[in-house]
């Protein structure tokens, strides 16, 4: 079957073309990515069903290419709809049919990105055929090595930020993530399609070879009773690493005694450990300069490679902290633009951004992370789920039930599909709060009061916390059944002894992890 994949709208000035489309449609296209070696980059806008509009223009961050830019970009004086692309499950048969109908197509060309991946076979054609034969692409050459054939051009590979479903160029990650044939996948970085009642949890690069999800359980703050309002962060980080615990998560609580800024705390803990992963749960982004945040994360990633796990939120957890993070505009709108700025700065050597809230000319941070950081988001309301699907790489929830987890995950998947993106199947997690056996009654009462106010829709707020280690294991099992695989466990209030609590955590919950 052959179907329209996308329309190509080319322009001599990409930024101006994007603004023009946003003005006329009322919808802002999302940034796609660079066409490495070809001197162009694109933005994407869904136009209904699985089709989308690709806006292509020169990439100022790349050097002048050796050959003319594709789609006749170099010859354009103004933006124009210059062509179209179709997708097919059998490129060779499609080429043969086109030639029989009198369409001048060259042979299919095998192309692959720098990393060995397989790509769905797609047919791409555009008006450049009037000047030279159109060249269909077969991305992923099928050779065991997956390497690029000498003299063949680099493919138009969509990496992070997101790319469209069934685009003419996509990576083979989606096949591993969904277990479906490459021509029917949700990738590369998951493409839009129908929402499913329950996504299949099949073998992925991030899972064990037996197909089970990678279950990982980290720890939030563990304050001790009677201790001074001292974070004691170095001791906590060392204690976690000594017990083989996966990660430490620091909350953004500006006014809380015994709390430190999570980015400062991560840097300190990184210097005291060698393997412990470090996350923010969550870092308030609106009200912070996104360029500074990107620079801080780049520095952390250089100091602690593959150990930095940023999670961002829209607003402070405590009402008293809100004056610390003022914004000029709606918080959600500021958040979304700030997140895009952070991602661009962490993935590109130079960024020029002219948005509604932020403007940067040739901004950069260094060193860029060797591996792009996954940017997770918090939230629970439907708008937050949609935002995660459109812009995030994962979800870290709080105060949810297993039923919330399943419906939230499905909503994120549906939003990612609509945006032409994918989110790794094991990038969904939540906090678990455990009430110690000897917790003071006033602590428990205060906790339940907060939960009733936060979740008035839950009949019994006691269902939102764990009342023993056995109960915590049962909660984990139910959340895992709902599709979550990453967890942050914390005690409800202060514990009698932090070492004893951590020993119990290691004995009771670490066996739930898989390796």
Overview of the molecule:
The structure is a single chain. With about 525 residues, the chain is α/β, with parallel strands linked by helices. Helices cover about 30% and strands about 20% of the residues. It is built from twelve helices and 20 strands. A hairpin with a 4-residue loop joins strand 15 (about 350-355) and strand 16 (about 360-365). It is elongated, with a radius of gyration of 25 Å.
Coarse structural class = alpha/beta
Tell me the fraction of residues in β-strands, as a range.
15-25%
For the largest beta-sheet, the strand count, sense and barrel status come to:
8 strands, mixed
User: Between the first and last Cα atoms, what is the distance in angstroms?
Assistant: 42 Å
Q: Which geometry do the CA atoms define?
A: elongated
Number of distinct beta strands: 20
Number of helices: 12
Using only C-alpha atoms, the radius of gyration works out to: 25 Å
Instruction: Quote the average pLDDT.
Output: 80
Low-confidence stretches: 111-135, 137-211
Helix content: 25-40%
Strand order of the largest sheet: 2-3-4-1-5-7-8-6
What attributes does this structure have?
515 residues; alpha/beta; eight-stranded mixed sheet; 12 helices; 19% strand
Question: How do the strands and helices of this protein lay out in sequence?
Answer:
Layout: E1 2-10, H1 14-25, E2 30-35, E3 40-48, E4 51-58, E5 80-88, H2 91-100, E6 109-111, E7 121-125, E8 137-139, H3 173-178, E9 216-219, H4 233-242, E10 247-250, H5 262-272, E11 277-280, E12 283-284, H6 290-303, E13 308-309, E14 311-313, H7 331-347, E15 351-354, E16 359-363, E17 376-377, H8 382-391, E18 394-397, H9 402-419, E19 428-434, H10 441-454, H11 469-481, E20 486-491, H12 498-508
Parallel strand pairs: 1-4, 6-8, 9-20, 10-11, 11-13, 12-14, 14-17, 17-18, 18-19, 19-20
Antiparallel strand pairs: 1-5, 2-3, 3-4, 5-7, 7-8, 15-16
């Amino acid at each position: 079957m052959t179907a329209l994949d996308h329309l190509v709208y080319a322009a001599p000035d990409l930024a101006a073309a994007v603004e023009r489309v946003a003005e006329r449609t009322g919808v802002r296209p999302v940034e796609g990515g660079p066409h490495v070696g070809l001197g162009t980059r694109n933005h994407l806008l869904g136009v209904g069903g699985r089709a989308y509009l690709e806006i292509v223009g020169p990439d100022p961050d790349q050097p002048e290419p050796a050959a003319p830019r594709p789609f006749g970009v170099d010859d354009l004086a103004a933006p124009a709809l210059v062509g179209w692309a179709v997708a097919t499950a059998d490129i060779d048969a499609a080429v043969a049919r086109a030639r029989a109908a009198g369409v001048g197509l060259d042979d299919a060309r095998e192309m692959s990105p720098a990393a060995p991946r397989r790509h769905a076979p797609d047919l791409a054609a555009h008006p450049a055929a009037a000047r030279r034969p159109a060249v269909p692409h077969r991305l992923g050459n099928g050779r065991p090595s997956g390497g690029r054939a000498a003299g063949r051009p680099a493919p138009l590979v969509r990496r992070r930020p997101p790319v469209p479903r069934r685009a003419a160029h996509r990576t083979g990650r989606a096949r591993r993530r969904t277990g479906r044939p490459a021509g029917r996948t949700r990738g590369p970085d998951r493409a839009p399609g129908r929402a499913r009642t329950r996504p299949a949890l099949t073998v992925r690069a991030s899972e064990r070879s037996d197909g089970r999800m990678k279950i990982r359980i980290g720890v939030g703050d563990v304050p001790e009773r009677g201790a001074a309002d001292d974070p004691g962060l170095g001791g906590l980080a060392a204690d976690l690493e000594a017990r083989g615990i996966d990660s430490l998560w620091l909350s953004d609580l500006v006014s809380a005694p015994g709390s430190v800024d999570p980015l400062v705390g991560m840097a300190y803990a990184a210097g005291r450990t060698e393997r412990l992963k470090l996350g923010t749960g969550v870092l308030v982004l609106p009200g912070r300069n996104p360029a500074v945040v990107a620079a801080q994360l780049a520095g952390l990633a250089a100091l602690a490679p593959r150990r930095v796990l940023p999670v961002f939120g829209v607003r402070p957890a405590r009402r008293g902290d809100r004056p610390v993070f003022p914004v000029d505009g709606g918080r959600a709108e500021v958040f979304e633009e700030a997140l895009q700025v952070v991602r661009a700065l962490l993935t590109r050597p130079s960024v020029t951004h002219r948005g509604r809230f932020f403007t940067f000319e040739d901004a950069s941070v260094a060193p860029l992370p060797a591996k792009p950081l996954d940017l997770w988001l918090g939230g629970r309301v439907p708008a937050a789920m949609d935002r995660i699907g459109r812009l995030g790489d994962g979800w870290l929830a709080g105060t949810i039930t297993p039923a919330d987890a399943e419906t939230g995950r499905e909503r994120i998947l549906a939003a990612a599909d609509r945006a032409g993106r994918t989110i790794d199947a094991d990038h969904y997690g939540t906090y678990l709060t455990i009430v110690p056996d000897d917790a003071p009654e006033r602590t428990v009462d205060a906790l339940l009061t907060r939960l009733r106010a936060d979740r008035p829709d839950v009949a019994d707020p006691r269902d939102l916390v764990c009342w023993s280690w056995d109960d915590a294991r049962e909660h984990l099992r139910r959340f895992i059944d709902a599709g979550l695989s990453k967890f942050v466990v914390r005690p409800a209030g202060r514990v009698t002894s932090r070492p004893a609590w951590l020993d119990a955590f290691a004995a009771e919950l670490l066996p739930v992890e898989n390796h």
